[in-house]
Amino acid sequence: MVTLASFYWGWLLGAALLGFGMGWIAVVHRGHGLSKAAAGWLGLLLVVLLGLALARVVPGRPGYWLDLGLVLLAIYLAGCSVGSWLRYWVVSRHESAA
Amino acid sequence: MRGLVRWSSKWWPGALPLLVLWGLAAWTTTVPLEADVAARASAALKDTVLDKTQIVVAGRDVSFTAEAFSEEGRRSAVAAVEAVPGVRLVNDGTRLVAEAQPYVWSVERDVVRVTLGGATPLPASKARLLDAARNSLNGVEIADRMALARGAPQRFDAAALLLVDQVGRLKEGKITLTDNKVALTGMARELGGREAIAAALKNLPDGFSVASNEIKAPPYVFQAYKDPVAVTLTLTGYVPDNAVHAALAAAAARKFFSEKVIDNLKASIGAPAGFSNVVVAALGALSRLSTGTLVVSDRAVMLSGDALYDEAVNQIRAGLAKDLPQGWQIKTEVSVKPAAAPVDPTVCQQLFADLLAKNKIRFESGRATIDPDSAGLLDRLIEIALRCPSATVEIAGHTDGDGDTGFNQTLSEKRAQAVAEYMARAGLPAERFRPVGYGSTAPVAPNDNDEGKAQNRRIEFMVR
C-alpha cells in the first residue's frame, strides 16, 4: 500500500484538501443535508463496494479503479472530519471569546 | 461526535469534485502503475530459471505465464510475483516444461553451418553448448534449433559438450544423442579424424555409450602435377609413412630427371593396400607426358595430360592397366601434344646430345632390359627423332671396362638393339636406326673409379 500511496500521493492530497475544505464549509452551511434515507442507501452502496473491493472480485483495471475510488473517498471523508472539527473548534472559541 | 454526524450530512456536495478527481486519477495513473508493477515483477523473477516468461499487467492484476523446469521452481516463481508490492492478484498461467521421451539432442554439420538441435535441460546448458560450439568451430556459422525439455539423462551437459567438440573434426555429418546412446554419421575432415573421434568417445561420461559410429574417413588422395613451363613436378597429398615418402621422392627424382620436384606430401595413416606400387607405376606414366596431372584417390587412379606421340597413349594406358592390382580403377584422359616443327638432322643431333647429357638410358644390371624409369627419357628421344624424319640414327651401346670383353661387346650390342626396338615400337621406321655395340672400347672417362665407369656405361645417338 505504501508503494501505491507513493505512486499517487498527489491525488490523495487533492482528495484530503477537498475534504478539508468541504468539512470547513459544512459547519456553517445553511443548506439542506442529506435525508436519512439517502444516507442509508449511500451507506449500503458503500458497504457493497467495499465488500467487492475486499473480496477482489472485480478483475483488472476496473478492480484497480474501484480500489482507487474507495481510497480517495476514505481520504476525502477523513479530510471532511478534520475540517469540520477544526472549524467547529475555531467557531466555538470565537463565540466564547465574544 | 453528534456534531460530526450532523455536519457529515452536508459533506455530499464535495462528492462531485471528488468524482472528477477520481476520474482524472484513474485516467493518468493506470498505465504508469501497470508499467511499474510489470517492471517490479520482472525484477523479482530475475534470478529464477524460467522459459517463455510472459507478464501482462491489468490494473494491479498480473497474468503470469511461464514454463518452469521443476515444480518447486514454478511455485517459488509464482510466490515471488505475488510478493511484489502493489500486486493485487496473480493469474497463474505457469506450467512445467514438457518432458522429452526419448531425450534426443543432435549437432549437425553441413557445408554452410553447424546446427544444434533437439532438447536441452536448462537455458544455461543451452548457452554453454552454443559457446562451446563457437569456440571449437571458429568462424563457422552456428544455428540454434534447440528447445528446452525436462527428462535429460544424468551428466547430459558433459556428454553433449564432448560431442560438440567432435564436430570440429567432421567435414560434414551428424551426431545424435538419444537418451544416453550416441550415434554418429558423416565424414571426417582429415585423415585420422575418424580415429581421433573414436578415441575421444572413450571419454564419454559414465552411463553413455556409442550405439553406432558410421563416420567415414576422407579419401586418401595423392596428387602429382607436371608443369612444363615451370619445369616442376609438384607432389601433394598423403603417403603412409616416411619410408614410403622417401621411396616415392627417390622414384620421382629418377623418372623426372629434368623437373624440379616440389614435395608437399604429408604422412598419414589410412592408405589403401598396394598404394606405394601403384603410385610408382602411375608416376612412371606421368613422366611420359609433356604436361599432366595424376590423382590417386583411395583406389582410383586418374591420369590426364598430353603424351608426346600417338603410340605413347596406348602404351601408357596398357602399361598402367597391367601394373594396377585387383580392385583398383583407372581412368586416363590422355591426348597427344601437337607435333613439334621438323628440324635439320644436325639440330636433331644437338638435341639428342643435350638430352642424353642430362640423363642416361638405364638398364637392369648386366642385362639388356630397359629400366622403366627411363621411359620418360626415351619418349623425349622419340619426339626428337620424329622431328627429323629423313635422318638415320646410329644407336651406339657402350659398357665400362669391368668384366669379360666379349660379354661387354655382346651386352652393348644387345642394349643398343633393345633401344632400337623400343624406337620401332613407338612407330618409327626400324630402318632409320642402326644399333651398334662398342663394348668397352670407347670409354669417355677412366675405368678406375665408380664415377668414371658409370659415365662409360651409356647409349649414344649419332645422326648419320
TrEMBL record, chain A:
Keywords: Acyltransferase, Lipoprotein, Membrane, Transferase, Transmembrane, Transmembrane helix. It comes from the Bacteria. The chain crosses the membrane at residues 6-27, 39-58, 64-86. GO terms for molecular function: acyltransferase activity. This is Apolipoprotein N-acyltransferase. It comes from Rhodopseudomonas rhenobacensis.
From TrEMBL, chain B:
Pfam families: OmpA. Its main location: membrane. It is found in: Cell outer membrane. GO terms for cellular component: cell outer membrane. SUPFAM superfamilies: OmpA-like. Residues 350-464 form the OmpA-like domain. The keyword Calcium does not apply. Keywords: Cell outer membrane, Membrane. The keyword Disulfide bond does not apply. This is OOP family OmpA-OmpF porin. It comes from Rhodopseudomonas rhenobacensis.
